[in-house]
TrEMBL record:
Organism (species): Scrofimicrobium canadense
Organism placement in taxonomy: Bacteria, Bacillati, Actinomycetota, Actinomycetes, Actinomycetales
Pfam family, one: Amidase
UniProt-recorded name of the protein: Glutamyl-tRNA(Gln) amidotransferase subunit A
SUPFAM superfamilies with a match to the protein in the record: Amidase signature (AS) enzymes
Catalytic activity: L-glutamyl-tRNA(Gln) + L-glutamine + ATP + H2O = L-glutaminyl-tRNA(Gln) + L-glutamate + ADP + phosphate + H(+)
Gene Ontology MF term list: ATP binding; glutaminyl-tRNA synthase (glutamine-hydrolyzing) activity; transferase activity
Free-text function comment from the UniProt entry: Allows the formation of correctly charged Gln-tRNA(Gln) through the transamidation of misacylated Glu-tRNA(Gln) in organisms which lack glutaminyl-tRNA synthetase. The reaction takes place in the presence of glutamine and ATP through an activated gamma-phospho-Glu-tRNA(Gln).
Length: 466
């Protein structure tokens, strides 16, 4: 099949289904077909191409794309066309992957359901009355509904993995620093990571290798090249051989608060891994009980600083005050009042509060200490086991509207995914079961920092045995 045919098939399916699913905020048919035509032309001439050339891809709308709108699902950036490409975008363009469009998310990636998008909720293709997870619900739904073979997401507290679990897709957060953040609109810079959203583990590995590796434009980028995850997956696939692997079941993430159907699916997969030869150990990470609280202090603190740049002058929306003098401060206030949604305002207020003089040590300081404890828990258990596993989420996808007015219930979605962000370790979600009422659930695998290959190995085994 030619790249033009493949790209056109995606565009046709998007045209047919996106009005219902709302996974895409922008579709770039012209740009994608131009890229595809170029790949086909080079192929016809026998020119050397990247092995992934010609396969269309979607990009979460908080990753900048030159000349193509990047809104972060916020009114404050409505219509903004970035003047440059993110490093990951540059890499996929260089490899010849046509970018078909930009996908929906919770505003500025704050949320767990994509309901906080200023441009409407994305629906879960498995059950359109349910949310697809968030913040990367658009990328996950697009892949799940076969609108596109794969997509890019960003994960600050679970925004690739949780939507992966809710839509039956594979979602990966690579080791912090493994993929350049240059051109990712910053939410919480010490937690953010870009990663793949795909339909299987092998695709995720191929995509991670393509986008990963050192980038001088990101000061937190690791100096080394992308780890060889594709070869690990190729060697593992189909073997169903888990011998020699030590797998830790995290006690704190596989009991209380997790729904029976999620736990049952999880235990079945753990049993299957044991049968495949893995040594299963129960491990305890007591600090994980405080991860959620620490995250919801650190994350808003960093977000409030990062979002200060949206001042009505530098990017996108500008709203002048309706009365009184037009000063910089008043333009900023009017723009932010009109441009930001409720959840974003909630977090900016939280973040500026925890950073304020007098509260800094009590909140932000304590949260940083918890972060250190979490890192130590990880270090200790990774002395005993190769990977940690848990359900990705406490429940299956919930109905649209169920948690929108209850921030705490919404935040509780992230209990299992957040520790990996706080510690910078790689983590992924791979689908491992479908509930009786036909909804997917996900299995999380976490490895020590820079050990992405062993995480992929276990994920491939899970894919094969479930
Ligand atoms: N649900 C989490 C939050 O709202 C995760 C967000 C993310 O990973 N971008 O903060």
């Amino acid at each position: 099949i030619s790249s033009v045919d493949l790209t056109q098939a995606c565009l046709d399916r998007i045209a047919a289904l996106n009005p219902r699913i709302n996974a895409f905020l922008a579709v770039d048919a012209k740009g994608a077909l131009e890229q595809a035509t170029e790949v086909d032309r080079k192929r016809a001439l026998g020119e050397k191409l990247h092995p992934l050339a010609g396969i269309p891809i979607a990009v979460k709308d908080n990753i900048v794309t030159r000349g193509l709108t990047t809104t972060c699902s916020s009114k404050i950036l409505d219509g903004w066309k970035p003047p440059y490409d993110a490093t990951v975008v540059e890499r996929i363009k260089e490899a010849g992957l046509p970018i078909v469009g930009k996908t929906n998310l919770d505003e500025f990636a704050m949320g767990s359901s994509t309901e906080f998008s200023a441009f409407g909720v994305t629906r879960n293709p498995w059950d359109e009355s349910r949310i697809p997870g968030g913040s990367g619900g658009g990328s996950a739904a697009a892949v799940s509904a076969f609108l596109v073979p794969w997509a890019l997401g960003s994960d600050t507290g679970g925004s690739i993995r949780q939507p992966g679990a809710f839509t039956g897709t594979v979602g990966v957060k690579p080791t912090y620093g493994g993929v350049s953040r240059y051109g990712l609109v910053a939410l919480a810079s010490s937690l953010d990571q870009i990663g793949p959203v795909t339909r299987n583990v092998a695709d995720a590995a191929a995509l991670q290798e393509l986008i990963g590796g050192h980038d001088p434009l990101d000061s937190t980028s690791l100096p080394e090249p992308a780890p060889p995850v594709s070869s690990t997956v190729a060697q593992t696939r189909g073997t169903r051989d888990a011998s020699g692997l030590k797998i830790g079941v995290v006690k704190e993430l596989s009991g209380e608060g997790y729904s029976p159907e999620v736990l049952e699916a999880f235990n079945r997969t753990v049993d299957a891994l044991r049968e495949a030869g893995a040594e299963i150990k129960e491990v305890s990470c007591p600090s994980f009980d405080y991860a959620l609280a620490a995250y919801y202090l650190i994350m808003p603190a960093e977000a409030s600083s990062n979002l200060a740049r949206f001042d009505g002058m530098r990017y996108g929306l500008r709203v002048d005050p309706t009365e009184g003098p037009v000063t910089a401060e008043r333009v900023m206030a009017a723009t932010r009042e009109a441009g930001f949604g409720d959840e974003v305002k909630r977090r900016i207020i939280l973040g500026t509060h925890v950073l304020s003089a007098g509260y800094y040590d009590a909140y932000y300081g304590s949260a940083q200490k918890v972060r250190t404890l979490i890192q130590r828990d990880f270090e200790r258990v990774f002395g005993e086991v190769d990977v940690l596993v848990s359900p990705t989420t406490p429940t299956k996808a919930f109905p649209i509207g169920e948690r929108i007015d209850d921030p705490l219930a919404m935040y509780l979605n992230d209990t299992a995914t957040i520790p990996a962000n706080l510690a910078g370790t790689p983590a992924l979600s791979v689908p491992n079961a479908v509930t009786e009422d036909g909804l997917p659930v996900g299995f999380q695998v976490v490895a020590a920092a820079k050990n992405d290959p062993v995480m992929y190995k276990v994920a491939q085994l899970v894919e094969d045995v479930s």
